[in-house]
Write a structure and sequence with these properties.
With about 100 residues, this protein is an alpha+beta fold. About 25% of the residues lie in helices and about 25% in strands. The strands form 2 sheets. A 5-stranded mixed sheet has the order 2-1-7-4-5. The protein has a two-stranded antiparallel sheet with strand order 3-6. The N and C termini lie far apart (about 55 Å).
């Protein structure tokens, strides 16, 4: 069976601890969308990324991270659906002195 080349994807940008954990600053992630016109909930992206990067500590990092979609900070991940083509950033808290 051939893979569907039209499967929607997003670009995930990793910063700080998230980048260190996954060993990359960005990656393309196919979205598991069942039908055209449906969206993938941003609230489900964390578990999807953790499944792609098991045993990296990403799960703990995401507990305190914030999200941005297309350079806009997300207040409530439950309100955002991804359809493909978006740039999603994992923003980790940083400490300074």
């Amino acid at each position: 069976m051939m893979a569907d080349a039209r499967r929607p994807e997003i670009t995930v940008l990793y910063f700080a601890a998230a980048s260190t954990a996954v060993g990359s600053r960005s990656e393309r992630v196919p979205l598991p969308i069942a039908a055209p016109g449906e969206s993938f909930p941003l609230s489900a992206l964390g578990p999807l990324l953790v499944a792609r990067h098991p045993e990296t500590g990403l799960d703990k990092i995401l507990e305190s991270a914030q999200w941005s979609v297309d350079a806009e900070m997300v207040e409530n991940v439950e309100d955002v659906g991804l359809k493909g083509g978006e740039e999603v950033a994992v923003i980790c808290p940083v400490s300074g002195g």
